[in-house]
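[[Sequence with tokens]]
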Amino acid sequence: MSEAPSDAAVLDVTGWTCPAPLRDRPRVVMGHGGGGALSAELVQHVFAPAFGGEVLAQLGDSAAVTLGGARLAFSTDSYVVRPLFFPGGSIGDLAVNGTVNDLAMSGARAAYLSCGFILEEGVELSVVARVSADLGAAARAAGVEVATGDTKVVEAGHGDGIYVNTAGIGLIPDGVDLRPQRVVPGDVVIVSGEIGLHGVAIMSVREGLEFGVDVTSDCAPLGGLVQAMLAVTPDLHVLRDPTRGGLAAALNEIAAASGAGVVIHEGRVPVPEAVGNACAILGLDPFYVANEGKLVAFVPREHADAVLDAMRAHPLGRRATVIGEAVEAHPGLVVARTGLGGTRVVDLPIGEQLPRIC
């Protein structure tokens, strides 16, 4: 039997410009799935060169494609959250809302989902039924139909109960063009509500932590909120839902793709007291904690007040707040102005503070 090739022979990483641990460990680590710098390096150096294509190069929450004269948004995501059930939702809710929200970030009205279940041998059928019921209810609430699916079973010890993959398609209305390349200096940055709730809710039940008050995930479908914003003007520049890597990752991705600088005012970012306390205790930054029912928008300044009013009139945007602006200075970089009058760089996270949150 011939000797297996070494890691170096399979993949030469010595020339990569990449933060640790990828340079020192040419193997997958948990941070590669965290939505931060390691995830970006994996996509840039492995997946994008292998797959190619102009559509993939968009690297948005969903891909905008044209088929038969119709503009469609197309997205897929996999869900491996632990625990399967948490305050405010379950893996079934996440599987729908996460994909519906990715489509909404293209301005699309979600229409159909596919659903793939990866089940571990030995998982209770009652758990599978409960997750399925949650998924179906979430789809109906979001106004989408589960049109096709697949089921696989892996041996005991080779999974974590249930993993779910969903893909979705939706129609993009005429005149809507949401992409980071449209961001220009002067754009107003709006976040739709309080950040960090999902990540802290998952952590509290997974680690058995108590923060003196119950924290509930913000898991919710954002399609209705986006349509309310587009009803004000189709000329929104870009939307993102700050899931893995939190608000910081979403802002950094937009800044890098647009070439604009971004300034946020730290004191304006709505951080719930419970989230702030939990992060202070654990040494975390709420800007990097995941959300599942929030969006960040870059809006032309002349439309910002009207868009903000429309967001606040919607149940999922009542706490919408202007947190900053796009600027000509420090292109591609996100900085926060602190309450003491200084500034700090809000960098792209390397990995993820809280693994397995979606």
User: Anything to note?
Assistant: Confidence is low (pLDDT under 50) at residues 1-11, 13-23.
